[in-house]
Amino acid sequence: MPDLSHPAEQRRDRQALHEDRRGDDGKTDRDNxxxxxxxxxxxxxxxxxxxxxxxxxxxxGGRVGLACVKGLAEALAKPAVRISSxxxxxxxxxxxxxxxxxxxR
Length: 105
Prior knowledge:
By secondary structure, the protein is mainly α. 40% of the residues lie in helices and 8% in strands. It contains four helices and two strands.
């Protein structure tokens, strides 16, 4: 474990935070985030409203998704709704009794 009390180790630790980490496909998160998307001629302003999953599930991912949807809706003066992940899972299925289950890891 590095001794972070030493200035050189602190500098190396800060540099590691800013490194571009690459996935199996060789792309960074930045490459994937800002890559052009084929939306079939639609734009983000085309929809009537924005929606985001509100959990249960990834706490941080849920907050990021909700914040993104709220920002887009506010900027484009459109409504935003939250959708319960469990309710969405329970809505689909062939049987009248459904039990949505998520892995809690």
